[in-house]
Amino acid sequence: MNDRKKQASQEDSCHPHLSSVPRTDDAANAGISRRGFLGLAAGSIFLAHSELQSPRLDSRNGIPYRTLGRSGEKVSLVGLGGYHLGKQADPEESIRIIRTGLDEGINFLDNCWDYNGGESEIRMGKALRDGYRQKAFLMSKIDGRTKAAAISQINESLRRLQTDTIDLLQFHEVIRETDPDRIFAAGGALEAVLEAQKAGKIRYIGFTGHKSPDVHLQMLATATKHGFRFDAVQMPLNVMDAHFNSFEQKVLPVLLKNDIGVLGMKPIGDHFILESKTATPVECLHYAMNLPTSVVITGCDSLPILQQGLQAARSFQPMNSSQVTALLAKTAKAAEAGQFELYKTSHHFDGTYANPQWLG
Question: Which of 272, 253, 246, 289 is nearest to 59 (CA)?
């Protein structure tokens, strides 16, 4: 892995594509106009100066904490992504990364049933022994769209993570127009998740996706139609997304309006955004932190990369409008066609595209 790639090793969870997903009427109703977004963009800069973005009021070991939507849970501004932990050649080093992050003030841990064939969850489970589970707000994800597949994956994740309860369980890779209806159908995955929640196996429910903001809006609209509201939603939020098929523009306002926790992922877009040579890793992290995110999840495959994320959180100061404008001006041209956001424009990150059997 070259130095730039190593410096940036960052991803979250999801994997993507359907190049262009048409908006459904329900999804369109859940969205906002561009003019409305421009007002919200100004509003999010204001939020950067509000209590949401004044993290010194609530911090641990210098790491700012924010509130996860209406749940009231306090989560660290930077979260530890699970995918890259399973890529680290030395399993013991993965455990050191997790425990160092928790000791340094991070509490939000990201993972997924399918990451590295389960190795990411297995390593995290080992790291959470010896009292470390009590320090963590633990999140994982499942791919199953049917009740049977979801039950199996939930139970397997619990075994690997060596815990009785996952704090936040999310439907992973909601990237297809068909995903929302499958999840909410009779005999669908939501039934399994609600039963697991009632049994105390999970506490909060969310979903993730990286492909299309319109599919996110469709998922939110489908939930509303079924009288259900998610506790958290995960999506790419970064200096490129702001310009192209933007989750920030289309989905973020809807989450804020409904007091749903905002999980920002791919702040560096794996290593691809750095390859554009338009922004540094810390600029990328600070941009995502400047949005009204509850947590910004970054992948760490080494202790130096973990320290980069910790330092970014500790040094974060709200950006003013001129700083935001200047940073977005640097990335605008590179972002035009989504060439540095392959999770939106290719199948590069789409684990369930390559493995449709995971859906059930």
Answer: 289
Question: Where is 189: in which H helix or E strand?
Answer: helix 189-198
Contact indicator for 314, 61 with CB cutoff of 8 Å? no
- Indicate the residue type of 121: E
Interhelix angle 189-198/147-161, rounded to 10 degrees, is 40
Question: Among 196, 293, 355, 270, which Cα is nearest to 13's?
Answer: 270
Reported as type and span, the H/E element at residue 120 is: helix 119-127
- Number of Cα atoms under 13 Å in the Cβ half of residue 333: 5
- Phi, psi for 226 (deg, rounded to 5): -95, 10
Please choose, from the candidates 73, 50, 76, 54, the residue with its C-alpha nearest in 3D space to the C-alpha of residue 65: 76
- Written as six digits, the tokens of 169 are 């369980």
- Strand residue runs (E) in 218-299: 232-236, 261-265, 295-299
The model's pLDDT over 245-284, given as tens digits with 9 standing for 90+, comes to 999 999 999 999 999 999 999 999 878 899 999 999 999 9
Question: Is 300 in contact with 233 (CB distance < 8 Å)?
Answer: no
**H or E stretch covering 354:** helix 351-354
Phi-psi region of 122 (alpha: psi -120 to 50; beta: other; left: phi over 0): alpha
Q: What is the largest CA-CA distance in the chain?
A: 52
The 10s digit of each residue's pLDDT in 317-340 is 999 999 999 999 999 999 998 888
> Distance (Å, rounded) from C-alpha 87 to C-alpha 81?
12
Using CA atoms, how far residue 84 sits from 80, 89, 111, 193, 289, in Å, is: 9, 10, 10, 26, 21
- N-to-C CA span, the chain: 34
